[in-house]
Amino acid sequence: MKRLFAPLAQGVTYTRALYLLLGLPIGIFYFVFLVTSLSLGVGLAIIWIGVVILFVAVLTWRGLGAVERGLADALLGEKIDPPPSTLVPGTSYAKKARAILADSYTWRSLAWLLLRFPLGIAGFVVTVVLISMTLGLLAAPVSLLVDNGSLVIDNPASDVRVFVESDLGWVEDIPDWTVWLLPIAGVFAAAISAHIISGFGRLHGLMARPLLGPSEREQRAVLKQRTDVLEERTMLAHELHDSLGHTLTMMVVQSGAAGHVFDNDPDFAREALGNIETSGRQALDELDRILGLLREDDGGERAPQPDLTRLPALVEQMNAAGLVVRLMAEGAVERIPRDVSRFGYRIVQEALTNVLKHAGAVPTEVRIHRTAGALEIEVSDDGPGIPVGVSAEASGLGGGRGLVGVRERVALLGGSVEAGPRPDGGFRVWARLPIH
Asked: pTM of this prediction?
């Protein structure tokens, strides 16, 4: 019962009723304008004034489409996004005119304005009939005051009786007591009418959306653009984590080692401080590159993202930090597609950073194997591994942001990844990236 009477308490029901009532005069205006302007423009098309009239008509009905979107938002409660502009600033008037005529919105808005005439008639008739029927049922008890079709009103100030003719004589054909039941039916009729009016208004909004808003192709383009932006932001977040996290880990390890042997081995401490300075400069360059991508700044040269060809330099850097890394590569690594090579480098970098962070300076082996259809990467260390009964996630080795990023990268390429403790001790990260 509550659902039945709910539209009567909603303001959008009454604004939709107003929209339907206004639909008839607005539809007539649109129809007269379009018929007059198009017939006049076509009739005078043999001279230049007809072309001008037609083009002004096109601009006008495009503007009326914007008015209709505003009415749909204000009265129907339907928010319709405007279609993307096809006009390129700085182009000639001829090119702008061709762009307007080639824009599907131009003809979709014309179709909607023509539809407003029959829809306006239907909406106006339905709304008037429902409101009239409801008010007639609610006002039925007034017929009890009618005497032979006339309403008699006594004026005590004078001996004058006023007779008002009534159109409710049809009620005299039913018993008087049943007349008092008609307002109850009127209440239910009001609820049903509210549902019909609100639904009819909602139907107008659903019909207007594909004609006055972006086309399906434009919606797909906007959705793809938003998806690309989100993917790009995710990738940049991974880039920040991988590059800066790796560099900061190296700096922390080397600064700790330098402080530990500063008095006993000043040459080693001096070398460690030099490596820290180099790592810091590399981190600043990497941060500048990523911030440049965030700003879409094309004003300067940006260093390319590292790929598998940079693995020897990465291994040398990790060895300088105290990690004993052995690199073994099989196959033509330099001929791997660029995206796969970049992702492969980040996987190795993240795995080695995790070894240095969680296991310390332990022997580590990196295997790169290129086959005809895939690239296999395996990073395994001889660290203490994970104690019995402790999961990889709980230990921090399997559930960190770094390995989450590795899994996301591998998923983007349609590959697979495994990360976990080795049966004989240590930790292993294995990934397979398909090569198309």
From this structure: 0.54
